[in-house]
Design goal:
Chain A is an all-alpha fold. Chain A is built from three helices and no strands. The longest helix of chain A has 26 residues. Chain A is flat. Chain A starts with a helix and ends in a 6-residue tail after the last helix. By secondary structure, chain B is mostly helical. Chain B has two domains: 102 residues, Helix Hairpins (Orthogonal Bundle), CATH 1.10.287; 31 residues. Chain B is built from four helices and no strands. In chain B, helix 1 runs antiparallel to helix 2 and helix 2 runs antiparallel to helix 3. In chain B, 44% of the residues are buried. The chains are: A mainly alpha, B mainly alpha. Chains A and B meet through helix 1, helix 2 and helix 3 of A and helix 1, helix 2 and helix 3 of B.
């Protein structure tokens, strides 16, 4: 497991750079929002793997919180793109 | 045994993540990118979290519970967020790509996004940019 751990984390970082490419290039605002949403999900996976590697269970708590915050961020961005207020 | 099964699940999940992110970069418009990336990355992340739960089972019960809880949250929230983003993208006036065959949603609701006030859509602006580049 420990032998392939570096490869797996490197693959996830490669994915994160692909997301960053999409966030940087656009071309429209929703494209960037999609990139941010996917990057949040990738960070959940990355944090969980780090927790498995180090053996600390609070990494999973961070992943849990990150998943929920990422969801709220996606909904807020979608409402903003749609031109609505957050309480509408 | 647990470690082998966990590593296998994590490996499959990472493969799905990489393919989804390739789709995010390669596909032509925001709707294609959204559906490719969301489906692949949701499944990939859920497999990674289940793999973490399986691999951590001999050491820590807390990690197993938290990983499975996180799996449930990702499985529930990621598609909902993607659906809201797709709706927001459509209603803010992002056009479909040229190869699109059918647009069932067209005309059902007026545009009201940040771009609705201006008449220029993204495609118009891209064409203007292309003309400026060739000139």
């Amino acid at each position: 497991m420990m032998a392939i751990h570096g490869v797996i984390l490197a693959a996830l970082i490669f994915c994160a750079f692909l997301c960053l490419y999409r966030i940087g290039k656009g071309p429209s605002a929703p494209d960037r929002a999609v990139g941010i949403d996917i990057l949040g999900t990738l960070i959940v996976a990355f944090t969980a793997l780090t927790g498995l590697k180090t053996g600390h269970d609070w990494y999973l708590t961070v992943a849990l919180a990150w998943a929920l915050v990422s969801f709220v961020a996606a909904i807020a961005l979608a409402k903003h793109l749609e031109g609505r207020a957050f309480d509408e | 045994m647990n470690e082998t099964i966990g590593s296998l699940l994590i490996g499959i999940g990472v493969a799905f993540d990489v393919l989804g992110c390739l789709g995010l970069v390669r596909l032509p418009d925001v709707y294609n990118r959204l559906q490719a990336a969301t489906k692949c990355v949701t499944l990939g992340t859920c497999l990674i979290l289940v793999g973490v739960a399986v691999a951590a089972a001999p050491q820590s019960t807390a990690m197993v519970i938290k990983a499975l809880l996180c799996t449930g949250f990702v499985l529930l929230t990621s598609p909902v967020g993607a659906h809201a983003l797709a709706r927001g993208a459509y209603r803010s006036g992002v056009p479909l790509c040229d190869q699109s065959v059918v647009d069932e949603y067209a005309g059902s609701e007026p545009l009201r996004g940040y771009r609705a006030a201006s008449t220029a859509t993204v495609r118009d602006r891209e064409q203007t940019d292309a003309k400026a580049e060739t000139a």
